């Protein structure tokens, strides 16, 4: 086994408690992803019921995003009971299921730190909306027509879309908590999809003005029930956070009450902030509420001092570049977040108008930042002598930094013994990935959804041979399409 000399990570080796069940087997092929089925004709459906508890991903180029391991050629990843046990050459445990990753790149699953998963059902309706259009139509109209089963279907298929694209962890910012049943069914959708998620319980979507215009309404009390009944264990595959309105959308009294409640429950809080204007961080500082448990989404119009306050307090910033550029929120702030010491991360946001995969969003965030960094040189009439954010750093931002932003860096984000086995296998033999001259660059800058051959979450195989293994998708497809049709019709948006 040969170790590459370049460093591919920025995270130290960490340990994590063992848990959960593990997964399936089978060889690498490279077919395009599809809904349901297992992409093979051998009769093995890849389900977890009879899944072995030991799995080896064999003979791949492992891009670990762990500086102590680096990039290993022709290496194996051994998984037991959902936990990564060893990363080395020639691992041969008895009776372990085997995934042959020859000619492929094995990387940590992507971490999408901001997604309104429920909007999968209204995909592609908002491609020319401004941000104010979105607030008025999506949160002022469409969200009120979602029933609990619509929330389930949106989250099931929205999470499946993420898995299909190599994303194994999402922060699901759920702002159609119109009833307890809505929240329960949304969580059911995430569970049935098999993704790792931080379910971020937000406000109802039944009255946009009430909940989003200088709101005086505190966070719904149902989050207490969810915390006690649905999320009693903090290290489960799906965990809880609070989606607060924050100072841009609620009064100081509500902001203080919401963050205090989240802290009493010991859960993080995420807020949309800085896309309408600056100053929100100053309000949080004055209230004495800054902390490393706060996630700031967008932040496009923050002043420099606001970035510094977030960084000094240990907060994280989620950049969703495609949405921010389209909707007029402002320039994505990946570089400013990192420079200030905040944890930088990337998210998709909404597939109602933009691409749903982290390949696209990460490259867009990096490309925009490179352009920003290059512009002063261009303005001087000179030539650029170096490029910012190299492929290693880009991949870190899409994996371990995302995990750090969600407080999950001890569990996921790198291929490290002791962490949970959230892995993606990228086919290196496809026309757009062959030859794999630099495996880190292949993943960060070359590969796409169609190259995602195998996806493993918590040791369980969610996609293999280019096809999702979840039979529920085929079973629920008609219901999903009917749900979307009804919601759009009732919202006055059906063509």
UniProtKB/TrEMBL annotation:
List the SUPFAM superfamilies hit by this protein, alphabetically.
Composite domain of metallo-dependent hydrolases, Metallo-dependent hydrolases
Q: Which GO terms describe its molecular function?
A: hydrolase activity, acting on carbon-nitrogen (but not peptide) bonds
Q: Which InterPro entries match?
A: Amidohydro-rel, Metal-dep_hydrolase_composite, Metal_Hydrolase, MTA/SAH_deaminase
As given in the record, the signal peptide range reads: none
Record-annotated Amidohydrolase-related domain positions: 105-461
Q: Which PANTHER family match?
A: AMINOHYDROLASE SSNA-RELATED, CHLOROHYDROLASE FAMILY PROTEIN
Q: What is this protein called?
A: S-adenosylhomocysteine deaminase
* Organism expressing this protein natively: Halorubrum salipaludis
């Amino acid at each position: 086994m040969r170790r590459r000399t370049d460093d591919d990570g920025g995270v130290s080796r960490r340990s994590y408690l063992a848990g959960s069940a593990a997964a399936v087997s089978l060889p690498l092929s490279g077919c395009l992803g599809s809904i349901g089925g297992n992409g093979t004709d051998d009769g093995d459906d890849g389900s977890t019921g009879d899944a072995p508890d030991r799995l080896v991903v064999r003979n791949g180029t492992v891009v670990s995003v762990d500086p102590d391991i680096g990039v290993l050629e022709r290496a194996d990843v051994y998984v037991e009971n959902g936990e990564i046990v060893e990363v080395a050459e020639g691992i041969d445990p008895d009776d372990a299921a085997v995934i042959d990753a020859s000619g492929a790149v094995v990387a940590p699953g992507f971490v999408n730190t901001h997604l309104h998963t429920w909007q999968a059902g209204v995909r592609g309706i908002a491609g020319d909306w401004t941000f104010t259009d979105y607030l008025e139509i999506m949160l002022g109209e469409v969200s009120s027509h979602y029933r609990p089963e619509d929330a389930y279907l949106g989250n099931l298929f929205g999470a499946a879309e993420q898995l299909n694209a190599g994303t194994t962890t999402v922060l699901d910012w759920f702002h159609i908590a119109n009833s307890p049943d809505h929240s329960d069914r949304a969580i059911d959708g995430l569970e049935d999809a098999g993704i790792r998620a931080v379910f971020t319980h937000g406000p109802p979507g039944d009255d946009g003005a009430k909940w989003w215009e200088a709101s005086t309404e505190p966070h719904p009390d149902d989050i207490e029930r969810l915390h006690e009944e649905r999320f009693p264990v903090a290290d489960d595959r799906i965990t809880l956070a609070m989606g607060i309105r924050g100072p841009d959308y609620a009064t100081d009294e509500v902001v203080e009450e919401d963050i205090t409640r989240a802290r009493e429950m010991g859960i993080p809080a995420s807020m949309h902030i800085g896309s309408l204007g600056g100053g929100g961080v100053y309000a949080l500082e004055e209230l004495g509420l800054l902390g490393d448990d706060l996630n700031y989404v967008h932040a496009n119009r923050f002043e420099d001092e606001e970035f510094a306050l977030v960084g000094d307090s240990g907060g994280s910033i989620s950049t969703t570049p495609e949405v921010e550029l389209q909707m007029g929120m402002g320039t994505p702030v990946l570089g400013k977040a990192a420079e200030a010491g905040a944890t930088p991360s990337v998210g998709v946001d909404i597939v109602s108008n933009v691409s749903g995969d982290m390949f696209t969003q990460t490259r867009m965030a990096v490309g925009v930042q490179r352009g920003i960094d290059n512009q002063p040189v261009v303005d001087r009439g000179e030539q650029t002598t170096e490029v910012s954010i190299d492929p290693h750093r880009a991949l870190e931002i899409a994996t371990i930094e995302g995990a750090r932003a969600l407080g999950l860096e001890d569990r996921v984000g790198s291929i490290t013994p002791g962490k949970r086995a959230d892995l993606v296998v990228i086919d290196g033999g496809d026309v757009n990935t062959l030859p794999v001259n630099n495996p880190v660059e292949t993943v960060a800058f070359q590969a796409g959804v169609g190259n995602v051959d195998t996806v493993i979450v918590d040791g369980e195989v969610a996609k293999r041979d280019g096809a999702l293994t979840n039979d529920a998708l085929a079973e629920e497809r008609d219901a999903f399409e009917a749900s979307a049709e009804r919601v759009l019709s009732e919202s006055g948006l059906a063509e």
